[in-house]
Amino acid sequence: MNIRTSKTVDAKACRFWLLVMTVLLFLAKSESMAATNTLFNYEFSTAGNAEGWTAAGAAVSVSNGLLNGSISSGDPQILHTGYSFPGNSSTGVLIRIKSSDNGNAELFWARVGDDNYTAGKRVSSNYTGSGSFQTLYFKLEGLAEWDGQTITRLRIDPPGGAGATFEIDWIRVLAWVDTTDDDGDGLINIDDPDDNNDGVSDAWERAMKDWPGSVSFDFDSSGDLEGWYTNSNLAILSHTNSILTAASTGSDPQFYNTQMYLQSGLFDGLAIKLTTTNSGSVQLFWGNSVSNSFNGVRSSNVLVSASSDAQTIYFNMTNAPGWKGHVITRLRIDTDLPQGRPFKIDWIRFSNGDYDRDGIPDIVEGVDDIDGDGIPSFMDPDSDADSVSDREESSRGWNPFDPVESTTHSDTDGVPDAAEIVSGTDPYDSNDFTSADIAASNATHVSVGISARAGRSYSLEYSTNLTSGVWTPTNNIWHATADQSLSWNVPVSTSAVQQFFRPSIYGMMGDPLTYTTNSPTDENGTGGNGILDNGYIRLQSGAGNGCSLTGFSVAGGTSIINIHDQGRLIQQSYYAGSNLTRSGQSPSWTNWPWNPIQGGDASGKPSEVIEVASLEFGGSVFTRTIPLLWDMTTGEKGKCVMDQWNEFEPGMSNVVRVTCRFISDRDEGDIWGSAIPKHQELPATYFIRSFSKVVSYTNSAPWTMASTNLLAYVQGPPWFRAYPTEGWIAQVDPANDIGIGLYSPVSDSGWWYGAAGNPPGGPANSQTMHMAPLSTVRLDRKSILVYRYWLIYGTLTQIRNRVYELHNLYPDG
Predict the structure, then answer these.
(1) How far apart are CA 799 and CA 801, in angstroms?
(2) Within a 10 A sphere around the Cβ of 767, how many other Cβ atoms?
(3) Of the candidates 140, 102, 95, which has an alpha carbon nearest to the alpha carbon of residue 121?
(4) Rounded to an integer, what distance in angstroms lies between the CA atom of residue 529 and that of residue 657?
(5) What value, to the nearest 5°, has the Cα angle with vertex 569 and ends 567 and 575?
(6) Count of other CB atoms within 10 angstroms of residue 241
(7) Which residues, other chains included, contact 24 with Cβ-Cβ below 8 Å and sequence gap of 6+?
(8) Least packed by Cβ within 10 Å: which of 2, 406, 649, 747?
(9) Torsion region of 402: left, alpha or beta (phi above 0 gives left; psi -120 to 50 gives alpha)
(10) What is the C-alpha separation between 502 and 3, in angstroms, rounded?
């Protein structure tokens, strides 16, 4: 691709050449920061709050989400005291920093037994950002003065001397970090938007696999059928390399999964990738919460053709009887393929109706693989492999299934339309182009700059010749949230006669990046504690509480969520199996069922958070938690995972949408036994005590705006229970009828409690208001459960109006 350049080259730089050559990485996007599990996380999100950090030899202040510093001496220091954590629990420290001066940044620490900053307790990381943000990693694991020691203090020395300035976006003391380089391109995974160099960004791949509520059975572990089982007329012949090979042994072979509870409004289709050398058909049956049995009325049939290649079949469930508006409780797959003839199943995946998020329904795109990349069009965000997303092509009136735009030059500037879209320039304006320049900074470094476009990620590669095909990337990738200038300060080779440079543009596909701060380079986008802020509602999931929802505040006010202990919060909590008395139980919770909860256990131990990620689509935060069993004081893990997507409802600034996915992986034959019907809280919520007025609609004319009901209650347990026929309950302050509404379409009833009257009580107070929508579910050892709910802030009238809007938008839940 040719890009016009402007060069500023002096004599020292005469042997360097700027080869402004854009590398189009198909479907690439800026990566959400590789998930990090942090011991301490400093985001500087509150003006004036340095979060315990002080300075020596520099003046610091906090504003606009940044720790701003001005250096006044030759030895500037940023310090934090009061720690007492084992060095073995942390692999290192990450800092996102911008400085007016390049140079070494240093991290010092003190420990028990040696409470001084010394050269033996120091690591360095070179800042080369030249005034742009850069992530610095201070690796500490394996150091004798760190591992096995108790760390008491940290000190960061930013680059630069007197007169220099710096800005710190965040500081993270990590429990672990991915420092591997999977594709060997010189960028560790945490800084590489495309870890495996397949041309599809990690963020895109991650979002495709885990869109809110997604369910897939990939059969990755040999011998693990992920809750599926067969009848006597279907035999699993082998299970290797993520492929099931099966064959019928009699008439009516069947493949079952009866351990699920899926809110069908989230799923418009189901796809199966299989290989068969025989033609025939595949039939899908399902049961729901109204009729939990297999019946020909609730079934769909798809023909398959004979082929030695894998093919994808798709069941369109948008109008299937007994699917939408119900909770799906079981699936069965039948086939009439010839007896004894093997067929292979690669995966079974649900779809939300637009699997690749390109705005084109799955049923329109179909299962054909137009570009021959092994991905059917409904799953492929660039169906014609021209590096411009189907969404972008469709919005421009182009044909997303024909790569003609990759050779079309609408503005006759020599750059194909498709390449201009990826690079962010206008394909119809010959004067709109990307410019770059090169200049020697000093005898050892050369500066390469580029005019960046919003929503793109850029790296710089260099080579000593143009024939070897070997290009070495620098370790800096810049993510531009606005049109801006970016630059790299690259060391000069003392042995090469010449050097060539090429900026690589990772083109944005689909929706633009979503950031909750003005930082242009925070890969995580939301901070490690999972903050979302739309200017009106600020939502926070606490890493120290299993990434349960711990903060819900309005316009900078106080949070309305009660966080008195790990059993409060807003969180996932489930019940299964028999009540047992076990060693290590809390005396208050003895004789208790299997009860994993997101926050932690009754002794205050937090559940383990193993992932926090920002997804570009809709600005959602994804979290993954291994919960603890509530009744235990020993930190016993629940042998399951709780996934959650927190989002704002588009167009509704006062509404938060939360999608929950629970996957159980209990041992066969464990002590709690098989499934028992139990009330499940979907979800469990605890709010401040002033929301003491409870209101819902419980009469027999739902969705008619008939008068609501004031619900009485007593302090529980036992807790008051009612049957809201519109699926919502609100708890508000009786002084002004302002509070929170909870809408959970899958619920069939609800309960709540709280002391009478309206006593004061903040987020940490023991006084609380509790409410939970309920549904009776049989959770088994390998169950999967998916549902979503909405939190609505406002007056009673506003809450109910929003519920009606949501019901109209999502009539099937």
Answers:
(1) 5
(2) 17
(3) 140
(4) 18
(5) 50
(6) 9
(7) 1, 387, 419, 422, 423, 505, 507
(8) 2
(9) beta
(10) 11
Look at strands 343-351 and 445-452 and give their pairing. Answer: unpaired
Give, as one character, the DSSP assignment of residue 735.
Answer: T
Between CA 643 and CA 621 the distance in angstroms is: 11
Neighbours of 807 (CB within 10 A): 17
Q: Which residues of 165-191 are buried (b: 16+ CB within 10 A; e: fewer)?
A: bbbbbbbbbbbbbbeeeeeebebbbbb
- Where helices occur in 286-434 by DSSP H, the ranges are 362-365, 390-395, 417-423
Most confident of 127-141, 203-217, 242-256: 242-256
Phi first, then psi, for residue 258 (nearest 5°) are -115, 15
Buried b (16+ CB within 10 A) or exposed e, 557-580: eebbbbbbbbbbbbbbbbbbbeee
Please give the DSSP secondary-structure letter assigned to residue 605. P
If you count DSSP H runs as helices and E runs as strands, how many of each does the chain have, helices first? 5, 53
pTM, rounded to two decimals: 0.76
Compute the radius of gyration of the chain from its Cα atoms: 29
Q: What is the pLDDT of residues 741-785, one digit of tens each?
A: 999 999 999 998 886 556 677 899 988 999 999 999 999 999 999
Note the pLDDT tens digit of each residue in 409-433.
888 877 888 888 878 888 888 888 7
DSSP secondary structure, 383-426, as one string: TT-SSS-HHHHHHTT--TT-GGGGT--TT-SSS-HHHHHHHT--
Give the pair of three-digit tokens for residue 61: 């202040």
